[in-house]
Amino acid sequence: MLVRFVSSETGEIMMFAEVARPLLQAVGKACTAHGVFRHDEMLAAAVVLRRFAGDTSDQSASECGDDSESPVALRRRAWPLIDMLERTGRGPADANIVWTASGDF
Fold first, then answer.
1. N or C terminus: which one in the chain shows less Cβ crowding within 10 Å?
2. Which residues fall within 8 angstroms of residue 18, CB to CB, at 6 or more apart?
3. Per-residue pLDDT tens for 16-70?
4. In the chain, how many domains are there?
């Protein structure tokens, strides 16, 4: 299943539910078919995801460790959402991010 994240400031990204689930859970969001990041949540969520994914300068972070069976580790798949959260969070107060999927995941 695909999850589509749409930002009022940066456009959209899509990721598989298997990738989106741990990222949303890390920031305390339910993995529902429809959801939203409020403007006041975005920068804090980005900080949490940076820690979860490990900063690019810390390639030894283990929370999203490099899975040798996966061509792209979860830590790297998190960065588009982190970027979206940071850029949208620095936007106007009415900026928003919503996600949609075909069902709860």
1. N
2. none
3. 999 999 999 999 999 999 999 999 999 999 999 999 988 644 443 444 544 455 5
4. 1
